[in-house]
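Hi team,

As requested, here is the filled-out complex form for the adenosine-5'-triphosphate run. I kept the field names the same as last time so the parser does not choke. Let me know if anything looks off before we queue the next batch.

— J.
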Amino acid sequence: MKTLSEFLLSTSNLTKQFGRHRAVDGVDIHIKKGAIYGFIGRNGAGKTTCLRMISGLASPTDGEIEMFGYTGKDLKNIRSRVGCLIEAPGLYGSMTAYENMQIKCKLFGIKKPGYIEEILHTVGLADTGKKKTKHFSLGMKQRLGIGLALINEPDLLVLDEPINGLDPQGIAEIRDTLHRLRDERNMTILISSHILEELSKIATDYGIIHNGCLIQELTRKELMKRCSERIELTLSCPEQAVPVLDRMGFVNYQIVDKEHIHVFERLNESAGLNTELVTSGISVREISLRNEELETYFLNLTGGATHV
Ligand SMILES: Nc1ncnc2c1ncn2[C@@H]1O[C@H](COP(=O)(O)OP(=O)(O)OP(=O)(O)O)[C@@H](O)[C@H]1O
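And here is what came back:
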């Protein structure tokens, strides 16, 4: 069945049970066309299991996946529109990058001249010549894995921890590759990692998974706002502070919940703001300056700094 949805990929109550263990527990993911969706979770959170189900490598115990408007059994018709790199790429070590690509192209019956060269260029491996892949760095192997996933021109690319274990140079090269894919091929990318910081320069949207549950979905803008520099006010009735903020000319602030207001401008005026609020009869329980690191934000969400 084909349905109309604003999302290229969405899941509903996606669940995977291994014996008594529920590795993925009712996950609802929403990925828009053209997004680079960072799927973040600690080791064992359930990322790989989710990505395997989305890529058709494992079947869900429960729930539904909708991709390109198709669900259920009809998903098999659009599998070729999904390219994936899950776990280590299967490479022939005694062959070159070109030869590895050639084998997969043959499987797909692709003979277009210049096709392989173009993909190797996109993944930054155009100059590897006769070098056998067993002599490639981990980053080069990962990029060749991405190149292999690009054969047959998928519309969605699913990458499971492609930056795991890479040095900063390797991470930067993967980042460049992903930017090229987005800009030149308008590709939608789902990429997992256990380090939020490393995806923060790439991803446009984020899903945070913890103990099999998707605990948060947010855009890059929302994430940056949550982690940006701000004055945090704790008071019993934030609405009462609004006239004072308005009178003082603050415009960039947000009532976060029943006790907190975040102010994202004029951080050096926090003392003056405090005085003004108190003078206006509003009791401020706490006022502080915050600039949360992305990684701290992620660790706080997923319950502390251990076992990262
Ligand atoms: N085939 C399986 N049989 C039993 N349990 C499994 C199987 N595959 C995964 N699990 C368990 O499901 C949970 C989620 O694993 P998964 O590999 O999806 O997590 P992850 O977030 O990708 O972590 P990692 O980065 O460590 O692979 C883990 O507790 C894992 O041990």
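Two things worth flagging: The first strand starts at residue 7 and ends at 18. The chain has ten helices and 14 strands.

Thanks,
J.
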